[in-house]
Each structure stands twice: as C-alpha cells, then as structure tokens.
Amino acid sequence: MAQAFAIQHLASTLVAWTRIARQDIEVISPQEAWAASCSGDLRLIDIRTLAEMRDMGIPEGAMALDMRAPDFVARIEGLLAEAPDVPLAFISAVSGRTTWLVRRLRKAGFTNVLNVVEGIFGSPDGPGWIARGLPMASPPARADLPA
Questions:
Q1: What ranges make up the beta strands (E) of the chain?
Q2: CA–CA separation, 15 vs 66, rounded Å?
Q3: Residue 127: CATH number of its domain
Q4: Which of 1, 46, 105, 118 is the 20 to 30 Å CA partner of 31?
Q5: Is 37 a domain residue?
C-alpha cells in the first residue's frame, strides 16, 4: 500500500513538474500545429533521430531535422531568416526534447519557436499526434542526418 502511494505520488509530482517546466515556453497542440502547418502559418520540424523517424515515419508536412546534426542551429537560423514571421514548431516523441530545445533556443534569442506538446506518441499533456489520428508520412530517404 505504501509503495503504491509512493509511486502514485512520484508520478503526479513528475506530471506537475513537467507542466511547470513548460511555463516559460510557448506551446501548441498537435491539432493546432497540423492546421497551422497545412495553412502555411508555421513550419513543423521533427527533431527526432533518423532511426526514430524510420521506425514510425514523420508527421505529414514536417521537415525532418535531427537536433543532433552539426548544422542544426545554422539550419534553424536559415529557416527563420527565410520567413521571420513564420513560427517554427518542434515535435519529438513525447515532447521532452522539444521542451528542452525550445527553452534553449528562446534563451539564445530565438522568439518565434514553439513546442508541440504531447509529441508524436503522447505525454502527460495528452495522447499525442498519432493517437489523435493526425497523418504521418514516410520518413526522409536522405541519409544526411546522423543515424
């Protein structure tokens, strides 16, 4: 009984901490990201590894850009320079990496960046891109991303 309570308390604390940690960044739901991406009001960027992308595909319309790529920041700067008024919305598996990334980008002076909460597979914030029935596409065939 005490162990079950401790586990439940730890889980609820983790959920609360995750929500608090996201308070300093702008977030967007998967449905909002999909709609805005379709209308050209934002650019959706999948930052998972190429191996992850190959396993499940990527959100339809997303740009595949592994956040470990050596030119990642330069490519983000290029995208923002091309269309400074078009926000970049980052998506990862469960929104953990994107929470971290968007926070770091904002601290570095990038303001037009968003975190797609829930991620692709779901998180404490909700069921995620796939469970919401949003479309997935084949992963990129290019091998220019780290495996």
A1: 27-28, 43-46, 58-59, 63-64, 88-91, 113-116, 136-137
A2: 26
A3: 3.40.250.10
A4: 105
A5: yes
